[in-house]
Amino acid sequence: MIDLRSDTVTRPDDAMREAARTAEVGDDVYGEDPTVNDLEARAAAAVGMDAALYVPTGTMGNQIAARTHTHRGSELLCERTSHIYNWEVGGLAQLSGLQVRPVDGGERGVISPEDVHEEFVERSAHRPGTGLLALENTHNRRGGVAIIAEEIDAAAAAAHEHDIPVHVDGARLFNASVALDTPAPRLLENIDSVMFCLSKGLGAPVGSMLAGSEAFIARARRNRKLLGGGMRQAGIIAAPGLKALANVERLADDHANARTLAVGLDAIDGLSVDTPDTNIVLVETREPAEAFVERVVEEGVRASAFGEHIVRLCTHWDVDGDDIEKAIEGVRRATN
Ligand code: TLP
């Protein structure tokens, strides 16, 4: 079975398992786990921020960021199809009392400075006030779109004109960095906080990082405890995360595999596929996506239904060029 449902399905390699086995640990709620402390320092440096916090999931990282930046009853401005708004169980409302103001970012999911100015809400006797702008890079739902630094800068500058902080959901930030050949710190030069996942393309079994200023991370640490994310001897899971940080450059292989997959699938009758920026391939299907997904499983390929006629396939470090050829053949057989 070639599992292309997500880049989260990867299994840790021997080096990661060995790192977990031999990790030095302590109680991280006391700040005494040396492996977690090392991971937090290296993660902060990797994104050019002052400090970072290890969190169990990307969802928790985003939700902590939203809660830490805002006051209850304010608004969060984000793209209409963003993860933080659509796939985090309404956490913004449930956990932080936020109202979402979604903006349509078009085919690439990019929020423009004009969008920010137009949708900004001034706090008044009648209005809640915008509390945070959340961007997503790469943009998952729009097909792993890598958003360039200048577009991020422009939206951030507009938000800062209104004194609104900016958070980036960078679950796949390093995919953007590699695809654009832009260092991650440059993509975040004008950003107040970022979440990135160790457990997606980088291959760690678990874990994400939230990074920002020292003061922001100190407050975020408190919110992590509140949400039940204060972990004890977390070095056991942080150690594979440290190995994952070294896996950034190999994301280029995933992107090359995704392009090969896109070209192969686009040549199949009834399917339409655009060339992806990164490791996420969106396939437009003539038949309903659910039916397509069921059919390709029979031929040894797992994919995710992502819309009525949209199927997502992700490349990752557990699939190589041969697997991609086999996946294309499997889909061809399934659709014949
Ligand atoms: N995304 C998952 C699913 O939830 C769709 C996936 O398979 O892509 N931000 C973005 C942009 C994400 O894509 C995800 C996970 C998250 C945040 C949440 O990360 P986790 O799953 O670690 O909570």
Q: Indicate the overall shape.
A: globular
Mean pLDDT: 98
Gyration radius from CA atoms, angstroms: 20 Å
Helical content (DSSP H or I, runs of 4+): 40-55%
**CA-to-CA gap between the ends?**
19 Å
Which blocks of ≥5 consecutive residues have pLDDT under 50? Answer: none
* N-to-C series of helices and strands: EHHEHEHHEHEHEHHEEHHHEEHEEEH
Largest sheet: 7 strands, mixed
How many individual β-strands?
13
Strand order of the largest sheet: 2-8-7-6-5-3-4
- Give the DSSP E fraction (strand runs of 2 or more residues): 15-25%
Structural class computed from helices and strand pairing:
alpha/beta
Q: Are any ligands bound, and if so which? A: ligand TLP
| Number of helices, counting only DSSP H or I runs of 4 residues or more | 14
